[in-house]
């Protein structure tokens, strides 16, 4: 049995045991069955399959248990779980089970909520852009055309939510989980060791932090509303979710460096729509002066966004994102011959357009990333049709492009695809 399955059954057994002599009421079993296929628009010989990058069947099941008697009932306790069974034919009919949720939710005091177990964590103001949302993501799912639900990875965590006056407080203690990034088997990407876009020939080692108490991650948020505007402060101490720093160049070892994030955001009505601003200082405690060429420098990240409903089931949204590498002079002086010189500044613009048709049963969506500094971009198109309350069809396209092979979207240009999904919910 996989570790996720052991974790699920252990947490469920503990919850039921603690609930005695009370009982739990089952809310029923729900979920969906889905068939998904992603056809490549490039004949990518670097990866395992040249003509497609997604072919899978998925069964998601979810349910919850509400404790109607015993100690947990007094705390409004319930246990919720959600898991996905998949048959991934891209890897030769590989079967898998992913536990996406398995948490116990308690309300022991009017001012306190507790959630412990596997859960999806998210906060911040960005649309597909994340600054203070430092929780793990799945960019493989994002680029091949799975549902947006799968962009957010679950975390094993304890979340405490306090509601005192004058502000609300969230505290999260979690175990490290990395982002799922292209690794060359399904999606090709730029490999700095080879200096080019690579696929199955990638030969590198990603070193994760050991599972010890000293490597737990801590995140906090303080937020409150001022009239219709929400203001928030964020803090995080943990690890970068992408292995960008070098442990040993000769052995092709990359690791997830320690990282501190201090940020803030505002979101509220403006000009007939909703505007937001968000920013953060991302500190590299392992390279505080920026003069170690093997470790990522500290950074400043800023973002502003605006979205508006134009009427007639038409919505638009825009974002501007800015990133600056700090101590850039020290970084540049530390480079050796043959090293890549990464830019000091990065600018990114996004545009979202959504239109509903046919009694809101057909949704057409266009989301575009464009970086004038990197000279690259990524166009995401999708059309969904709700045939009934149970059946849904989705078709879309992922179209990354770029002038250079080493930029965020330029390295993904061989992974263009069109995808199709058919879902039956129950």
Could you outline the blueprint of secondary structure elements for this entry?
Blueprint: H1 3-19, E1 24-26, E2 30-40, E3 52-67, H2 71-74, E4 78-88, E5 94-109, E6 112-120, H3 139-144, E7 154-162, E8 168-174, E9 189-191, E10 196-198, E11 205-207, E12 217-226, E13 229-239, E14 245-248, E15 253-255, E16 258-270, E17 273-283, E18 299-311, E19 314-325, H4 328-334, E20 345-357, E21 362-371, E22 376-386, E23 391-402, E24 417-425
Parallel strand pairs: 11-15
Antiparallel strand pairs: 1-3, 2-3, 2-24, 3-4, 4-5, 5-6, 6-7, 7-8, 8-12, 9-10, 12-13, 13-16, 14-15, 16-17, 17-18, 18-19, 19-20, 20-21, 21-22, 22-23, 23-24
Structure description:
It is a single chain. With 426 residues, the protein is mainly beta. It has one domain: Porin, CATH 2.40.160. 8% of the residues lie in helices and 52% in strands. It is built from 4 helices and 24 strands. The chain has helices at residues 3-19, 71-74, 139-144, 328-334, and strands spanning 24-26, 30-40, 52-67, 78-88, 94-109, 112-120, 154-162, 168-174, 189-191, 196-198, 205-207, 217-226, 229-239, 245-248, 253-255, 258-270, 273-283, 299-311, 314-325, 345-357, 362-371, 376-386, 391-402, 417-425. The protein has an 18-stranded antiparallel barrel. Strands 11-15-14 form a 3-stranded mixed β-sheet, with no helix packed on it. The model has no long low-confidence stretch (mean pLDDT 93).
């Amino acid at each position: 049995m996989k570790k996720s399955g052991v974790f699920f059954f252990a947490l469920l057994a503990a919850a039921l045991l603690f609930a005695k002599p009370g009982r739990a009421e089952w809310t029923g079993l729900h979920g969906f069955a889905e068939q998904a296929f992603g056809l490549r628009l490039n004949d990518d010989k670097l990866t395992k399959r040249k003509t497609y990058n997604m072919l899978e069947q998925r069964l998601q099941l979810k349910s919850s248990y509400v404790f109607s008697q015993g100690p947990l009932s007094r705390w409004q306790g319930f246990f919720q779980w959600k898991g996905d069974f998949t048959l991934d034919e891209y890897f030769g009919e590989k079967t898998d089970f992913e536990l996406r949720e398995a948490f116990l939710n308690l309300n022991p005091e009017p001012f306190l909520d507790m959630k412990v177990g596997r859960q999806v964590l998210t906060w911040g103001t960005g649309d597909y852009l994340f600054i203070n949302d430092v929780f793990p993501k799945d960019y493989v799912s994002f680029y091949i055309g799975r549902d947006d639900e799968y962009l957010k990875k679950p975390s094993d965590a304890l979340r405490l939510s306090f509601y005192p006056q004058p502000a609300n407080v969230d505290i999260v203690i979690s175990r490290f989980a990395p982002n799922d990034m292209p690794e060359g088997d399904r999606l090709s990407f730029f490999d700095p060791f080879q200096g080019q876009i690579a696929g199955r020939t990638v030969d590198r080692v990603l070193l994760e932090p050991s599972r010890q108490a000293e490597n737990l991650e801590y995140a906090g948020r303080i937020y409150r509303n001022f009239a219709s505007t929400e203001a928030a402060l964020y803090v995080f101490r943990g690890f970068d979710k992408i292995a960008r720093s070098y442990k040993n160049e000769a052995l092709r070892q990359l690791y997830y460096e320690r990282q501190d994030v201090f940020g803030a955001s505002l979101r509220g009505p403006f000009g007939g729509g909703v505007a937001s601003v968000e920013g953060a200082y991302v500190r590299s405690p392992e390279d505080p002066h920026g003069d170690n060429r093997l470790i990522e420098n500290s950074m400043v990240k800023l973002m502003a966004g605006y979205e508006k409903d134009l009427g007639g089931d038409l919505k638009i949204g825009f974002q501007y994102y800015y990133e600056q590498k700090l101590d850039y002079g020290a970084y540049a002086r530390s480079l050796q011959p043959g090293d890549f010189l990464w830019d000091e500044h990065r600018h990114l613009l996004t545009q979202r357009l959504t239109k509903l048709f046919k009694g809101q049963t057909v949704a057409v969506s266009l989301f575009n990333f464009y970086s004038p500094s990197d000279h690259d971009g990524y166009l995401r198109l999708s059309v969904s049709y709700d045939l009934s309350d149970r059946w849904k069809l989705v078709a879309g396209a992922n179209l990354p492009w770029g002038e250079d092979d080493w930029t965020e979207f330029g390295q993904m240009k061989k992974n263009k695809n069109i995808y199709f999904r058919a879902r039956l919910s129950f």
